[in-house]
Amino acid sequence: MTRRFASRDEGRTEVLMPAATAIAEHGYHGMTMRHLAKATGRGLASFYHLFSSKEEILFELQTRAFQHLIESADVALVGPGDPVVRLHRFISNHVHYFVEQPDVMRVLVQEAATLPPVRRSTIRELKQRYFAIGESLLARVVPQEPSQIEIERKAYCMFGMLNWIFGWYTPARHGTAEDVARTILELTVSGASTMPRAHDLEAINLTLTRTSLLGEDS
Prior knowledge:
Blueprint: H1 3-26, H2 33-39, H3 44-50, H4 54-78, H5 83-100, H6 102-110, H7 117-139, H8 148-163, H9 171-174, H10 177-193, H11 198-217
């Protein structure tokens, strides 16, 4: 890589975090390139030299975030330890990354559907790769052999916990990133590895049926 291109790449990296903060605060559609340039401490012409549009900035933010997550997830997948240790490594990497970069997390969640179809498809493929790694790690902690759709449901529940951290996490109140990671791991493993007995399921279904009937009568 030539010095010119290396310098441009470094410049793009430097402005991405301030740009993520601005987009997280004001929303993608509430920002112009002039606003983003000001938020990142760049002149407008200098900013256009780094990114041709705010769409390109959003795409770069999402691409880099998922590439980083996939790389760390690959390490968790092949690293040492039993299935629970590997799942913990995956969850911990995810939590630490977004606790350290909450604005990136907010942009990924809130602006997930903002990109046009072609670029949105590229991001969707990265998401699917990342989800597949998490799903495969989760499947290994399930002692029985449930259906694939059951594992998929459990994986979506796990990601629901992981992806909503930005909506409630406060370090002073909720502890460190590792505290949060361990809580999510405990909930995930206990939920994935404990299957209700048949008569327990019957009791649950009966309760739900009665509740539904009472609701219809009221």
